[in-house]
Design goal:
heterotrimer, A: alpha/beta, Rossmann fold, six-stranded mixed beta sheet, four-stranded antiparallel beta sheet, 10 helices, 10 strands, 36% helix, globular, B: mainly alpha, MetI-like fold, 2 domains
Chain lengths: 253, 289, 307
């Protein structure tokens, strides 16, 4: 397994106004691997995920201290453009969020915004992203039809394809399967395993079996602290902390 | 790495973003500036005749500057009173019906309320004229106008507003209040009358006051119905009202009357403001639900 | 019995709407019988000659409302975007309140302001310079529009005052529609690296489009039926053209509502009055149609968003 660091987190704490939500998080997320964040509701794992692409900037009264580095560059440096950051670090949300436009326009949205491609190149890019997201065969005949007409699982794969359209390095996923049926969940898990050859995936999940199945590294969050972080095999079979052991074995949830 | 840096394309996008935000902000500022402009004139010009004698005197033919609009104020109040008499029973009762049902009939009623709401005010006045005054005027030329007719027109305009507000306020009453009463064996109508309606009372009063504020400034429905008056007459005859007086003075060629028009406008606006502020005050003060 | 009582009251509403239509129809019968379709196509309204044609009033109404919409829509939608998307939290309530205050001012007060402030302003700062300007008389479209009698009361004044009056109305509805669009759509767009303007223009506004169009139509419907402010600034005179119609902005004119308000006092019982009532009937029907189409658009849009 590659251990080239991709995202380096140093002493990150986070506040919503006067409420502290994250306490001194430190970790190194490796490239081309799947890292999972697990923990009970409200433990801060989603909050932390949103720090990585600076989505929390959009919240009034949000404050972060510490540094997050993407390939050795501090993402909050003045010279960094947040729009470019969000291109490089994409996000897939819990609920599938297709834009109210055609399937083609959904995928083309990112490239058009960042002026990445047009005309024939754009057509090819749309096809590539849909193929990589395992959706091409199902929609290739109806690219101009509305994305809202797709099923839940298809919509989520569309959102993944949309994220891929701007060639990110990192893909953040916030409980991407929690709104989907088991079949769709399985397809997306397969997709994630394939994606890690070219991308770095960070996934927040409530589903411990899912984390065990697909992740290479796992981080366990509890009440805003990173209790344990390491290779998934180790974390799940021989955790070093009792809290981790308790959570994994369902002694609290 | 350069991939996160700010590129020329990005700077161009950011400039567009800033221009867009500025345009939107300026639009809002423009709207408010116009408001300020109108109000500024209202106060500056209206203050001239804004004195006690203006409110306590009737128009003075000998000494126009000493005249007042007492009859218009009283007329307006009377008209609003009549409007209330018409719109309250019908509006509240149909509001109760709306809150209690959800069938095809209630959808139809909701639809009709929308239609009624959208009818231009001049058409409502014309309707009252056509049905009530015209037949009388054909036999007694030049007669038939009355404050009652005008009040009716205003009442018709208030009905949809009162109904909607009653419906919404009733729906806000928590189910637990209903359950508590029904569980004691109280019939539904008594629960509504004695428990639910009083609970929604503040919200309904607010809505009614806002409807009054809206309707007190209407002139068009009065054009065909009350005719206007220089004196204080009975409600069953020609009556004057503030907006009507304003119209008359504004379009007159007498500069004194023009000046009084501004003061009349100021008076009207003040009444509307007081009604609106009182209404909002009630909502905040009476939030027991 | 309870159910019966309240059902009856709402049936009163039903009969009321029908009654209005029927009453107007009944009292305008003499005119309908005497004039027939000429009422809608004729341009002249002459009591003495017994001619009653409402075409000029109808086109005046359409023209003034169109001007109002053209001026008001950009301002309303941009203000709505400002209030729903851009303004910092603390500023939203005061500005919303102030814009609502614009809506609380009665039409006749706007008319007063129109007569003594807007009209002199337009006449001195816009019309007189434009009419005497050598450059404007050379530009093709402008020279037909920026023309006319130019002594103040005009279609332009009416259009502008209507614009002021419908702006708060359209802004409020658009603002509600924009607020109804789920936040997560904006999050998804931001996650792809868009600027705020791009999110609003490419994702939010297209999503809100049917509702926004409905709001604009509702504003149009409002402008259509507006009486007092219009009648006080539009001049209530037929412009000096062969067919009594003019697209020159500085010419006076009529709208259906202003004609009704203006001619009522002179109308003798009989055909004249019946013709006026027929005018009212036309106004009743047209504004009802506009409002119904508009409301269904707004309803369709909000249903689509919540689905």
């Amino acid at each position: 397994m590659q251990t080239v660091p991709c995202v380096t987190v140093k002493n990150v704490s986070f506040w919503y106004g006067s409420n502290q939500a994250l306490f001194d998080i430190n970790m190194t997320i490796p490239q081309h691997a799947v890292t999972a964040f697990i923990g009970p509701s409200g433990c801060g794992k989603s909050t932390f995920l949103r720090c990585i692409n600076r989505m929390n900037d959009r919240i009034d009264g949000a404050k972060m201290t510490g540094t997050i580095q993407l390939n050795d560059q501090d993402i909050r440096e003045k010279s960094v453009s947040v729009e470019a950051l969000r291109r490089t670090v994409g996000m897939v949300f819990q609920k599938p969020v297709p834009f109210p436009m055609s399937i083609y326009d959904n995928i083309a949205f990112g490239p058009r915004t960042h002026r990445l491609a047009s005309g024939r190149m754009l057509d090819e890019l749309v096809e590539k992203c849909l193929r990589d997201a395992a959706l091409w065969d199902e929609v290739k005949d109806k690219l101009k039809s509305s994305a809202m007409a797709l099923s839940g699982g298809q919509q989520q794969r569309l959102c993944i394809a949309r994220t891929l359209s701007v060639s990110p390095d990192v893909i953040l996923m916030d409980e991407p399967c929690s709104a989907l049926d088991p079949n769709s969940t399985h397809r997306i898990e397969e997709l994630i395993t394939r994606l890690k050859t070219d991308y770095t995936v960070i996934i927040v999940t409530h589903n411990l079996q899912q984390a065990k199945r697909i992740s290479d590294m796992t981080g366990f969050f509890l009440r805003g602290e990173l209790v344990e972080f390491g290779p998934s095999e180790t974390v799940f079979s021989t955790p070093t902390r009792t809290e981790t052991d308790d959570y994994i074995n369902g002694r609290f949830g | 790495m350069t991939q996160l840096a700010k590129t020329p394309v990005l700077l161009q996008r950011r400039v567009t973003n800033a221009l867009f935000q500025a345009a939107c902000g300026l639009s809002a500022v423009l709207a408010i500036t116009i408001l300020g402009y109108v109000l500024w004139f209202l106060f500056r010009q209206g203050i001239t005749y804004f004195k006690p004698s203006f409110f306590t005197n009737l128009p003075d033919n000998v000494n126009p500057a000493l005249g007042g609009i007492k009859h218009s104020i009283i007329g307006s109040l009377n008209l609003l009173g009549i409007a209330l008499c018409i719109s309250l029973p019908i509006g509240i009762l149909s509001g109760v019906y709306q809150a209690e049902s959800s069938g095809k009939l209630s959808n139809l009623v909701r639809f009709l309320t929308d239609v009624l709401n959208g009818i231009p005010s001049i058409v409502v006045g014309l309707f009252v004229y056509a049905i009530w005054i015209l037949p009388y005027a054909l036999k007694h030329p030049g007669q038939g106008y009355s404050g009652v007719a005008g009040g009716t027109a205003l009442g018709i305009m208030m009905i949809p507003l009162v109904m909607r507000t009653t419906d919404e306020m009733l729906r806000l009453v928590p189910q637990s209040l209903w359950d508590a009463s029904l569980a004691l064996g109280t019939p539904r109508w008594r629960t509504m009358l004695l428990i639910v309606l009083p609970a929604a009372r503040n919200g309904i009063v607010t809505g009614v006051m806002l409807a009054l504020a809206r309707v007190s400034g209407e002139t068009a429905p009065l054009l065909f119905t009350v005719l206007g008056n220089e004196f204080l007459g009975p409600i069953t005859g020609p009556t004057d009202a503030l907006p009507l007086r304003l119209y008359k003075y504004a379009t007159s060629s007498d500069p004194v009357q023009n000046s009084m028009a501004w003061s009349t406008a100021l008076t009207l606006l003040l009444i509307i403001l007081i009604l609106s502020i009182l209404a909002r005050f009630l909502t905040r003060a009476g939030k027991r639900i | 019995m309870y159910v019966g009582a309240i059902t009856t009251t709402s049936l009163i509403l039903l009969t009321l709407v029908l009654a209005i239509g029927c009453a107007l129809l009944w009292q305008s019968m003499p005119a309908i019988k005497a004039l027939g379709p000429r009422f809608l196509s004729g341009h002249e309204w002459d009591d003495a000659a017994g001619k009653y044609g409402s075409a000029a009033f109808l086109s005046g109404t359409l023209y003034s409302s169109a001007i109002a919409i053209l001026v008001s829509v950009p301002i309303s939608i941009c203000s709505a975007v400002f209030l729903a998307e851009l303004a910092p939290k603390w500023i939203r309530l005061p500005i919303t309140f102030l814009i609502e205050l614009l809506a609380a001012i009665p039409s006749v007060v706007y008319g007063l302001w129109g007569i003594f402030v807007l009209i002199p302003l337009l006449r001195d700062k816009v019309m007189t310079p434009a009419l005497s300007s050598p450059t404007i008389t050379k530009i093709p479209v402008l020279k037909t529009l920026l023309a006319g009698a130019g002594y103040g009361p005009s279609m332009l004044a009416a259009g502008l005052i209507l614009a002021i009056m419908i702006t708060p109305f359209i802004t409020a509805i658009c603002r509600d529609i924009l607020l109804a669009i789920p936040t997560i759509q904006r999050d998804a767009a931001a996650g792809l690296g868009t600027t705020q303007a791009e999110t609003i223009v490419k994702v939010v506004l297209p999503s809100a489009a049917p509702g926004l169009i409905g709001a604009v139509m509702l504003g149009f419907g409002r402008a259509f039926g507006e009486t007092m402010a219009v009648t006080m600034v539009i001049g209530n005179m037929t412009p000096n053209t062969p067919d009594g119609r003019s697209i020159a902005l500085f010419d006076p004119g009529y709208t259906i509502a202003s004609a009704m308000a203006n001619k009522f006092t002179e109308a003798t019982p009989g055909i004249a009055t019946a013709a006026l009532i027929e005018l009212g009937l036309v106004l009743f029907v047209t504004s009802m149609v506009i409002n119904l189409v508009a409301r269904s658009l707004v309803k369709f849009a909000s249903r689509r968003l919540s689905a």
